[in-house]
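debug: dumping io for the single-chain case to check the tokenizer round-trip. Nothing else runs in this session.
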Amino acid sequence: MSTYEPVLFPKMPKKSEKEIKALTKSLYQIFSFRRTIRNFSQTPISEEVIQNCIKIAAMAPSGANHQPWHFVAISSSTIKMKIRNAAEKEEKKFYSSLNHDEWLRALEPIGTGPNKLHLEKAPWLIVIFAERYGIKTDGSTYKNYYVPESVGIACGFLISAIHQAGLYCLVHTPNPMKFLTKICNRPTSNKPVMILAIGHPAKEARVPYAATIKKPLKQILTTLR
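debug: decoded output
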């Protein structure tokens, strides 16, 4: 077991309160343009860009610094087609089930359906896996901590990096999604969490009006002084 060893860290340049306010306002403006799209153009994106975004995601904090995540980046048209076919098979079951009426009504203003063309047309897919437990080089296992929270934060980092790079993405969570473990050749310790379809918007890309409505700050923030 390793022992605690404090080390110096590279500090960010110090900013004044005025600079911090200006920066946060600028960041808000940048993120106000973030939208989820389903129509992607065929404009290519280099593998280096995807790697850089994943490196940013890997800087996220995690329980005990175990970094319980794995990212599978896919540009292969064959594998993307396999994922689309498998996802649509599950989606058709979901949309035809009467057990999900309430959820389907909530989705109506968003305009989604069982057709998942974006999984095939987007230049890149990133499948995010949560490592439920770690595996040592000798084959023994160890426990990971706060896995859903850690992976969720990393996904937030990743989506932020994609947006700030000037790209668009769509979060897709087919249910169930065990097929991703097989297609991506991941061990059983890996639980698929989501698929991110990434690319540039097609000319015909549109977003649903309902998705442009965000809750005002007073509804999502409580300040205790």
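debug: round-trip ok. Helices lie at 17-31, 47-57, 77-95, 101-107, 118-121, 147-164, 179-183, 217-220.
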